[in-house]
Design brief:
Blueprint: E1 8-14, E2 17-23, H1 32-47, E3 53-58, E4 63-65, H2 70-78, H3 85-99, H4 102-108, H5 114-131, E5 135-140, E6 143-145, H6 147-154, E7 157-161, E8 167-168, H7 182-190, H8 192-201, H9 207-213, E9 218-220, H10 225-236, H11 241-252, H12 259-274, H13 277-293, H14 301-310
Parallel strand pairs: 2-3, 3-5, 4-6, 5-7, 6-8, 7-9
Antiparallel strand pairs: 1-2
Length: 322
């Protein structure tokens, strides 16, 4: 049976947070349709200054995202001739360049190269999430395998349901490997050896195992997953959107470079923020507050608590336009 798109994203605005329920059809699969809609959603969130965070959860009662639509992967793979590693590398490089050209991309999507272009676009979408000033939170209301797990790894934070659920990369059991970023993002989350061992075995983590090895950030009762994820998104979404983006880029991209190159990324991001109007106003407010109270505000427990709750250190702001 030929692959047909079945999924869609249900988007609900909750103030500065978008709650997005991923509906992958009867089997809760991630297919091309969801990939396209996700790309549009990330663009919308980036462009709207009022959107500070996005929370993803599954429409299925016990699954976040089952895995990729296997028919989608199989048909796109079958549409292209068999190639070796060098040939595949050339196809991937070409897809990267073609994806940046709107005209060429439209033409190439009608050729056997369309699978490589679809994968390139999905990777680009995930990378845009990593560069964004918007916080992306995976509310794992149930299990997630393969591309479902990779979708969660691409988010900034992960809250998972306690219970008989699992998350992991089983692709090797189908004669393939993770293709949505699993070999890279899982490795950065839990370390090289544990990631390789998990990918080679194809056995997923339980919620407890995922929490222990750092693959998820919190494990809570299933009925608390979405509320907890929204609370987390609302709280951290109060931080400066520009500073969130700078911090994410420094960690995600600088953190995988050499120390010297990573420090260069950090310095560049630091200077964009220290010279920004927002950064200047907050620092001047901090200095003014120090003069008023006679102590460094962050060494006052009550003020620090207010800062954590509100997203910035409270205090008088400068009005001189600097």
């Amino acid at each position: 049976m030929p692959y047909k798109d079945k999924g869609h994203l249900q988007i609900e605005a909750r103030g500065a947070v978008l709650l997005v329920r991923v509906d992958g059809g009867p089997h809760q699969e991630f297919g091309l349709d969801i990939s396209v809609q996700l790309d549009k959603l990330v663009d919308r969130a980036d462009r709207d200054p009022n959107i500070r965070a996005v929370v993803f959860t599954g429409a299925h009662p016990e699954r976040f995202v089952s895995h990729a639509a296997v028919r989608w992967l199989q048909e796109e793979g079958a549409a292209s001739p068999t190639v070796g590693r060098r040939g595949a590398a050339a196809v991937v490089r070409m897809a990267k360049h073609v994806d940046r050209s709107r005209l060429l991309g439209t033409l190439m999507r009608k050729t056997p190269m369309r699978g490589a272009l679809q994968l390139e676009r999905l990777h680009t979408t995930f990378l845009r999430m990593n560069r964004s000033g918007v916080l992306f939170v995976a509310a794992l209301n149930g299990s997630a395998l393969g591309l479902g797990a990779e979708f969660a790894w691409a988010c900034d934070l992960r809250v998972m349901a306690d219970g008989d659920f699992f998350i992991g990369q089983p692709e090797i059991l189908l004669g393939i490997i993770p293709g949505g970023g699993g070999t890279q993002r899982l490795t950065r989350l839990i370390g090289t050896h544990r990631s390789l061992a998990a990918i080679l075995e194809g056995k997923p983590f339980t919620p407890e195992e995922a929490l222990a090895n750092g693959a998820v950030d919190q494990v809570v009762p299933q009925d608390k997953v979405v509320p907890q994820a929204i609370e987390l998104a609302e709280r951290l979404g109060k931080r400066s959107k520009g500073s969130v983006a700078a911090a994410k880029r420094s960690v995600y991209f600088g953190g995988s470079m050499s120390l010297e190159d990573g420090l260069h990324v950090e310095r560049a991001e630091f200077f964009t923020r220290v010279m920004s109007q927002e950064g200047q106003e907050l620092m001047l407010g901090y200095l003014n507050a120090t003069d008023v109270i006679g102590e460094l505000p962050l060494y006052r427990p009550d003020i620090y608590a207010q800062a954590l709750a509100s997203g910035s250190v409270p205090g008088p702001r400068s009005t001189n336009g600097r």
